[in-house]
Give the backbone structure.
Amino acid sequence: MSYTTSSPFTCAVSDAARVVLSGCEDKVSVDKPAIFVVECEPSLGSPHVQVLSPTRNALPVSVKPLDTPGRFSSQFTPRDVGDHSVEVKLGGAHVEG
């Protein structure tokens, strides 16, 4: 995370290249858990993961640390057919990508 200089405002910026989501297939079955891993710099802390259904309803997401610092297992269960949106925040800032 870096900070802008010469400004009265603080703006934290996260490098999306330092955050990797892996393990979740493109297609997952309704009512079956979907599991993926979030990897990030340990100094960024735990990620906040939100999954939105095709109707933009937030689904419950479990985020648990794994054995390696900066690696977290995330799990959600789709209830609807269609594209779901995964949003990740680190240090309160959205991770683009």
